[in-house]
């Protein structure tokens, strides 16, 4: 057995071998046993690495197997020290300290007057960042957080532990009953003090878990404990286009950038999008109440985007920034322009919990956007939801409906048909890389089809004027690349835009629920007709029945032209003695072939004679069918 371990771009090969036993002569086995008694264990290291070896010993008993003896070698290997540029992620502002230092941070921030979009946002971002860096501090990337449990070492516990040690030393010098009794009393007092501190700490912990922010605290606690069980350094390797593992940081980062840049810039082939009539109705300005509602929907403790400004600052109760934000949002709408930092995003590849860890396609790209643009998106999202009327078949990203509703309806549909012994056929459609590949032109068309005002569409369009992104992984952060197609996964507006698009493109396909169920990009079609030709024609799915028939007939001709002694010819002419039992006959391969021959205008009784009298080329030309083509390919 061989295992390859990659450490610091260097591969270490570990081998495990078994002594000859099974199938060997008695002389060979006895010789192996005698060699085993004289076996000398060696630890092979390079001359320059001899200083790493501290100790090596052979365990005399068979800990692994009867033919093996374990060799234990102790090496002193220092953990790798990554360079500054190779650390995992940039430094972050400690926004979680804002709750305790709110009175010192908020009054020090002076927001500028609203003039132009770029100038105003630049001044506000600099003012907030300067105060946050000074009052809250920043993290040091690359350093592991160690829980040293400093809360356990209080003054009372320290005094009791020192008293126990003072009684322990006299007992070691003179082991008398009095010294032993005094040591036991001091030991019990130290345990009581320690138990009292632990009880108080865990009582406070339970109080935090039952509070309003208890759920967030549980996730933080679980994340911290999970990181303590991880290795010193996260593995950052990924497979290239040919499936070869990349272990170099620069090559790995380049591979991630090329993969996401290809997704974000390459658009699927699609037919010309028809034009929809626009709705030119006036839209009211953004109000303070809409900004307050959007701020309430923002959650605390979320990862920030490229501008490192957290929503916790805008939600702080120490000041009232809603008026300033409302005025700034109206200025953005008036100028039809957003700040440069609102166009930037950071993509975090998140494993889907399925597939290979080395495959880029098994990762979901989660985008970290500026929290301020998410607040603006929530306002736009609320305005659009008041206008659009989605189909009742849609269960994704809709208030009062979830995936459980769709599962419940589908199960009852199957149950009721099973009860009446009626056939029902289901088809499930899943769009590939749906969020990242939806064309922007289709989004504007779908919004117009739902009667959204042209002014609101313009609000959405300015968010996708010139978006740029970068990839952040364990290998580092890549350079920027343009994003010209798709919507962001992690945006507050993207789910609504996507379900609107799905509703429009499946409009002709939909039937009343539960015959058609939608959950975002997942579509379920149900029908009592197995053919469902109307669904296939409406959805543009290519039929493959003719192509499967061609493959069966090609093999049938290949079998008939074979020699009489061949295996396939013997199996075709095989005859089993006996009578067929009563009841309906089972469908045979030859029965299916008879139907295929009728479909190509050949009588089943003449099939054998017809195939044997012509050559292979003419037979293939007669049964050949065109490759299935999608509806969009025929245009």
From TrEMBL:
Superkingdom of source: Eukaryota
Xref: CDD domains: RT_nLTR_like
Reverse transcriptase domain boundaries: 331-594
Family annotation (InterPro entries): DNA/RNA_pol_sf, RT_dom
PROSITE patterns named in the record: RT_POL
Pfam families: RVT_1 (PF00078)
Residues annotated as signal peptide: none
Name of the protein in its database record: Reverse transcriptase domain-containing protein
Organism of provenance: Haemonchus contortus
